[in-house]
């Protein structure tokens, strides 16, 4: 049985593209604004959903007077 000798050239070219982030992080103030907006919405969304479930008509805390 013959073993195969694979070199890196045979496997394909090296990965040289290092732009794997979907945004530009070089502009610090824009990055800060987008980062905290994204994280803030992600953190607040469960609380918004709970509030909606509680106070919607027929919800948990809806007045039953």
UniProtKB/TrEMBL annotation:
It is a single-pass membrane protein. The keyword Zinc does not apply. GO terms for biological process: mitochondrial electron transport, cytochrome c to oxygen. InterPro entries: COX7C/Cox8, COX7C/Cox8_sf. Its main location: mitochondrion. Pathway: Energy metabolism; oxidative phosphorylation. It is found in: Mitochondrion inner membrane. The keyword NADP does not apply. This is Cytochrome c oxidase subunit 8, mitochondrial. It comes from Cylindrobasidium torrendii FP15055 ss-10.
């Amino acid at each position: 049985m013959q073993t195969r000798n694979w070199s890196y050239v045979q496997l394909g070219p090296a990965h040289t593209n290092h732009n794997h982030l979907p945004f530009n992080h070089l502009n610090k103030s824009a990055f800060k604004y987008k980062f905290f907006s994204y994280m803030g919405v992600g953190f607040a969304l469960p609380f918004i959903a709970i509030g909606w479930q509680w106070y919607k008509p027929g919800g948990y805390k809806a007045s039953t007077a």
